[in-house]
Amino acid sequence: MEDRHILDIQDLHVYFRVYEGVSYVLDGIYLHIARGERVGLVGETGCGKTVTMKTVMGMLKSPPAIIRYDKVSLDGQDILKMSPKELLRVKGTKISMIFQDPMNALNPVFTVGEQLYDVIRFAQKRLDNEKNPSQKEIHDRGIAILKEVRLPDPERIMGNYPLELSGGMRQRVLIAMALVNEPSFLIADEPGTALDVTIQDQILNLLKELVENRGISVLLISHNLGVVRETTERAYIMYAGQIVETAPVDLLFENPVHPYTQGLLASVPSLTGGEIAEGIPGMVPDYTVAPSGCRFHPRCTHSMSICSEKKPSLTMIEPDHYVACYLYTEQKEQNE
Amino acid sequence: MEAKQRVLSSVNLELTETWWMAFKDKIGRSWYRFRRNPISLTGASMVLLVILLATLAPYITPYPEAAGGFTDFPNAFQPPGKAHWFGTDAIGRDLFTRVLFGYRISLMLAVVVLSISVPFGVILGLTAGYFGGKIETVIMRITDVFLALPPLVMALAICASFTPTIEVAMLAVASIWWTWHCRLVDSIARSVKTEEFVQASQVIGDNHFRILFKDILPNCASAVIVKITLDAGFVILVGAGLSFLGLGVQPPKPGLGTMISYGSMYLPEKWWMTVFPSFAIFFLILGFNLLGDGLRDMLDVEAGGS
Amino acid sequence: MNEPILVVENLVKYFPIRGGLFHHQIGEVKAVDDISFNIKSDEIFGLVGESGSGKSTIGKTLVRIYKPTSGNIRFKGKDVFHIAEKELFFFKKEVQMVFQDPKSSLNPRRSIKSTLEDPLIVHKLAQNGHSRKKTIKDLLQMVELSSNYMYKYPSELSGGQRQRIAIARALAVKPSFIVLDEPTSALDVSVQAKIIRLLQRLQSELQLSYLFISHDLSLMRTVASRIAVMYLGRIYELAPTEELFRNPLHPYTRTLISAVPVVSEKEQQVKPTKQSKEGEIPSPANPPSGCAFHSRCSLADQICSEQLPELVEVIQGHFVRCHHVSLNIASAKL
Q: B296 to chain A, minimum CA–CA distance in Å?
């Protein structure tokens, strides 16, 4: 039975051993991405989105990480049970990644062309193709993808070193490198964060276009709510290792129901002016002594006694809109 | 990942209410990191063992008189056995005792040389790196000249020109050793001075001295400490080399290099006269090197916070 | 009291590019190229722009980290760069700065106490260790941190907490003017909100003036009362905040506003039409001739690449540097 989701995470828990004891970072994450869907994962620093991303990429070393889960599958296969060899075949071919900082993600001592060739060549090797692509084929594919990311004069860019290119151009090169092997799943980690606003605008539009044309599923990780709204179709809001709300972006941002989502949106300065809210009182918790139940409860103005006792599960409040909050579960139970 | 965890788990505010509690917390964390690293632990144990043995040498050695000009010809050339664990030398002195006393000399050599050369080198390096321009050029060119001279050869030359005693040998080594620290600190100071916190101090109105000692020096400290630990081994090696060539520790003092030199005449039959002192040097230097590596890992993490 | 507290006149700052065998100068980065503006006391003046705009350079030149290539800056009437040693000290008590990256603006090797003590010791603001400690506790309270943070090190604090310390350090000398260089760019959105509100509260309570530098236009709208839009070392538009957003005239300003990723449909509606083509931001080492924006501007003409337009007051208080805008407004007036 083919999985209709390209990525399916169910009840993922991740712990780390540290000086103070055990750091319980991810507390039961649920996340799924349908084929061809663009999904955003929103959260602030320390909420666990990087750990989630690393888990999906099979990049967490265990120990020191301890991972428990119901399901973490990529295209029907359990990623965490894959052998290193299988993982290698999947990375770069089926699943590809765009890193946050274009300055650091490219190797400064190799030209763009050399790095692009490497990506293409190694992917072929991993897929065990009988025919090894010729140098000319590789070159042509490289030029083609550089044209698609709208880099002017691709021939010359191939010969450039990363330091000779501007931030926006490097980001385009990174996108090219991620897409050249035609992955079915792309993870974009804070794309455009390190770029200027007008350049970020161009890059995000480009990314959206390329991804839509190819039907690639995307997991876009960001702390920038505006970027998520303008680039993705559906988003998850994450707080302290728990998923608190998820919905299609228009719905989510026009009608946020979880107190954290509401606090977050209120803190974003608006282009139409007006005061920003007071922010959210309190601080992100210490994962070695994380709050019990709903991890947001110490900072929540609506918290009730049950919030600290048991973690609320994601319940549907309207089609496609799920929230993990007792304010709504209770209501739902009352309505039933 | 570690960084974020540290940042988030830091705020057990009660733990740092006073200076003393904050200090204890910091030491606790450093120790945790240190003891997780088997390399540094091994190195530290080795060095501590040597220091302990050297300090207690007069009290724990079976034949303390062997450290000096004692003769016992009937007992000469004894192989290692129950009475003499490391055997005896050409004139009947117990080698085990001499090795332990030899450690005293080696450690003292390291301490004296480094306590003269390091402060000198660090101050020059700070001045050069921070002020830059002509001051830096002058200092660094002088340093370059000294660096071009291999320490052993230089020490040889100085020792040969004056009376070759261990004191002269130490001064000779110190006179070139400062250059390494000067260069190290200069390069660190050059990059630290461009950091924003230095600019912030300038905006506050700090004078140069304050910036040098409060902002720049602490950021050089970890590199210097690691280097000192690794230097200790090397200085001891240079000293042993000088002694081996007859220009360092003079008999009847139990310099390890001197012992190897005299013992080498009786190889290979009376192997213990060379092997034990050699191993002693090797053990100490290895200990310092492992300790230095471990310290570097520990201090690097602390500085970057990640 | 409407006498400006800060007057910047024709400020120019070029950085030499060195290269070649002899490390000689082979070019210049024209970071700041003839900038003039005033800031009134008790005002928050915003400087907005992207990389290469020169906004950070202006901030750092104001606090004397850089010396200007030409032009002058007058603070409370006195020339900032031609003052005696004694007056320099006075200046440092009046004008302070909060840097962008809290990770690098605090010395990782110094405890919070040591960092905050510094200004107190240097300016002799407390008699002994005991009163210094008390002052530090007061400062921490002012930035909403418990006094238990005194003995901690920056690596043990979160970004928001570090930035509060940086603010406390700037406040320690009781300045009247603070340069804030992207003070919240490195922070999460919910933390940013708290810091911004703290800064606003401090500004009104202590009657401070701010030069607020940022690339975030939405933030600027919330915070600043007047905004200057910079591009490649020059000001291309300057207006009171509401006027700038209601009526953005320069194509670059319009591009900038429309590029902001927004979270609501309401905001999406107010975005002006973008008047630019796809392209990179040129380097200030090699800026385009004439109007620097012409390489990306959809309105660009021959004259735009030949002649730099003047910064003209087209509406009261609203200045624009653009051939087309000036022409349009002039013809509308006729």
A: 19
- Residue A41 belongs to what H/E stretch? strand A38-42
- Whether residue A287 and residue B1 make contact (CB cut-off 8 A), yes or no, is no
Residue-level pLDDT at C87: 84
Shortest Cα–Cα distance, C124 to chain A (Å): 35
- Chains with ≥3 CB–CB distances under 8 Å to C: A, B
The Cα-based distances of A34 to A5, A7, A87, A335, C81 in angstroms read 4, 7, 21, 31, 62
Q: Flag if A279 and C255 touch (Cβ within 8 Å).
A: no
Query: Whole-angstrom Cα distance, residue B278 to residue B274?
Result: 6
Within 8 A by CB and 6+ apart from C143, the residues are C164, C165, C167, C168, C171, C198
Residues contacting C71, CB < 8 A, separation 6+: C8, C9, C10, C11, C12, C34, C35, C36
How many helices and strands, by DSSP H and E, does chain C display?
A: 13, 12
Q: Which residues, 6+ apart, have CB-to-CB distance to C47 below 8 Å?
A: C55, C58, C59, C211, C212, C213, C214, C227, C228, C230
Residue where the block lists tokens 């700038």: C244
Is residue C250 within 8 Å of C322, Cβ to Cβ? Answer: yes
For residue A331, the model assigns a pLDDT of 56
Task: Tell me the count of A-B CB pairs closer than 8 A.
Answer: 33
Residue of B29, B204, B208, B216 to mutate for C, most C C-beta atoms under 10 A: B204
Picking from A18, A164, A198 by the largest number of C CB atoms within 10 A of its own CB, the best residue to mutate is A198
CA-CA distance, C283 to A150, in Å (whole number)?
20
pLDDT band at A333 (very low <50, low <70, confident <90, very high): low
Q: Do residue C106 and residue B197 have CB atoms under 8 angstroms apart? A: yes
Residue A130 above 60 pLDDT?
A: no
Comparison of pLDDT for C177 and B86, the residue scoring more: C177
Instruction: Judge: C278–A150 Cβ closer than 8 Å, yes or no.
Output: yes
Q: What ipTM score was computed for the predicted complex, to two decimals?
A: 0.84
Whether pTM exceeds 0.90 = no
Please list the ranges in chain B whose pLDDT falls under 70. Answer: 1-17, 300-306
- Nearest-CA residue of chain B relative to C174? B204
Tell me the pLDDT of chain C averaged across its residues.
Answer: 90
pLDDT tens readout for residues B236-262? 888 888 888 888 788 788 888 888 888
Q: Does B37 touch chain A (CB under 8 A)?
A: no
pLDDT tens for C113-142 read 999 999 999 998 888 888 999 999 999 999
- Chains with 3+ CB–CB pairs under 8 A to A are B, C
DSSP-derived letter for residue A67 is E
CB contact under 8 A, A271 and C196: no
C64: left (phi over 0), alpha (psi -120 to 50) or beta: left
Nearest-10 Cα torsion for B217, B221, B222, B227: 130
Question: Taking CA atoms, what residue in C is nearest to B4?
Answer: C158
Q: Which of A276, A284, A299, A301 to mutate to test the interface with C (most CBs of C within 10 A)?
A: A276
Terminal Cα distance for chain C, rounded: 37
- Cα–Cα distance, C25 to A273 (Å, whole number): 46
Strands (E), C177-221: 177-181, 209-214
What per-residue string of b and e applies to B188-200 under the rule 16 or more CB within 10 Å gives b? Answer: bbbebbebbbbbb
Are B1 and A16 within 8 A, CB to CB?
yes
B4 near A46, Cβ under 8 Å?
yes
Task: For residues A115 and A163, give the distance between their C-alpha atoms in angstroms, rounded to a whole number.
Answer: 14
| Distance from C-alpha of A191 to C-alpha of C280, rounded to nearest angstrom | 17
- Give A223's contacts in chain C (Cβ within 8 Å): 188-189
Closest-CA residue of chain C to B14: C148
